[in-house]
Amino acid sequence: MTETQNGAMFDAISVHNFSEKILEQAVHFHVMKLSGGFFLWVGSTPVLSNLAVSMSSKYDSMPLSTLVMGDPSNTAPNSLSQRLAKKTKKQVFVSYSLPMTDSNLGLLVENRIKKELELHPEHF
């Protein structure tokens, strides 16, 4: 959907939510499709504890990434945003608000996101 504002064309922001029980934990996913990218929030409770952004660069095969807010020792949002930016060739904002207690959880969460990307690419 495209909207016009003061004569300029803008893509409307669309929202897509999905949830899954992963390792006995309810994990919620919230995707906001933006013009040229998307914002992805992953968590079990409504908390925005960090935010990372990644985008492709013509100077490097790996997308650039930075943590906008949150604990720099938690690399999950940066890593996930970087991999999603590489896969989608879009600017990606990620907030990852799940405990880092189980390394399998992160892998399973990322696999669920990739599955959703394949099933519903129009939301990303």
Our Rg estimate from Cα atoms comes to 15 Å
Helix content: 10-25%
Instruction: Give the ordered list of helices and strands.
Output: EEEEEEEHEH
Instruction: Count every helix, treating DSSP H or I runs of 4 or more residues as helices.
Output: 2
In whole angstroms, the N-to-C terminal distance is 14 Å
Indicate the proportion of strand residues.
Answer: over 45%
In the CATH hierarchy, the third-tier topology is known as Ribosomal Protein S5, domain 2
Structural class estimated from helices and strands: alpha+beta
pLDDT below 50 for ≥5 consecutive residues: which ranges?
none
CATH architecture call: 2-Layer Sandwich
CATH class: Alpha Beta
Q: How is the main sheet built?
A: 6 strands, mixed
Domain tally:
1
Structure at a glance:
This protein is α+β, with helices and mostly antiparallel strands and 124 residues long. The protein has helices at 76-88, 103-119; strands spanning 2-5, 8-11, 14-22, 25-34, 37-43, 51-57, 60-69, 91-97. Strand 1 and strand 2 (8-11) form a beta hairpin.
Describe what you observe in this structure.
The chain has 124 residues and is α+β, with helices and mostly antiparallel strands. It has a single domain, classed as Ribosomal Protein S5, domain 2 (2-Layer Sandwich), CATH 3.30.230.100. The chain is built from two helices and eight strands; from the N terminus they run βββββββαβα. The strands form two sheets. A six-stranded mixed β-sheet has the order 3-4-5-8-6-7, covered by helices on one side. A two-stranded antiparallel sheet has the order 1-2. A hairpin with a 2-residue loop joins β1 and β2 (8-11). The longest helix has 17 residues, at 103-119. The chain is globular, with a radius of gyration of 15 Å. 21% of the residues are buried.
